[in-house]
Amino acid sequence: MEGHLDAEMISLLMLTPGIIRTQSGIVRQLIDPSDWVKLLTMQDPTLAVKEGQWIRVRNGVYKGDLGFVTRVEAWGAQVLVVPRLKTPTPQADTSLKRKRTAIRPEPSLFDLATFSSMFQRQPKLQYDGSYTSRGLVFHHGLLRLNLDLHSMSPIVGGVPSQILGLFKLSSHPALTGSKFPRPEEWSFEEGERVIVSSEKEGTVAAVETTHLLVDLATNEGIEAVSWCSVRKVFKPGDFVSVMSGRSRGTRGWVERITNDTVYLLEYMEEGNVLTSFDDTMVNPDTR
Fold it and tell me: 223 is in which domain, residue-wise?
């Protein structure tokens, strides 16, 4: 492309993937053919995504995974994801690679000792507390990615509670005060009784994408409550049905509740046998 490099042109180039600006001016470099079409659909990054937004990665190793935007730049955004690190393949097995179906690595928070032992290299500690190794940046157990706008999409539907649990476990400072997406295993309906983290009971008034609206029983009105701050109300003797997880479909009576775990007496239709059952969470995994 040939043209006058005025202020408007520079502004356009700053939003174009693959073009970098330095003190000496615009750095010109070749653009991969796969990015050509993207040039025709450029967006203003300040309007496409926002800092503190949850997104879903659209391609690469982390395709479909949950991401959290920590910074927005002209080229895209800096995003945190739960690492999926591929275990090194023994040399003896390399000849069988083509015969095997690629297995996606399981998500797991970065741990210095585990990483060093697994990959036989020591990540470098940076001034901000992050660790770097061969282009990878880990901070509070999460992996920092740089993604262009075409590699992200809004969150639609729920997110596996396993992934959300790892984000919470990381205690990353950027997540403080963030409204977590709905765990996909959780099921709430209007009119259900719940208890919020403030130990106040209420009734679900509406189910939103990022939170619940709860009508508090204390006559304080309706309050917006994040997904991680609400629990369903159960008491011993209630007959319940498990809605998700490995025990989905199980029915029975609540025997007792300890912390976040409910113990059930499972209902068996043949002979009406009662069996103690204790792997059901009182979190919205059950109803």
Answer: 193-232
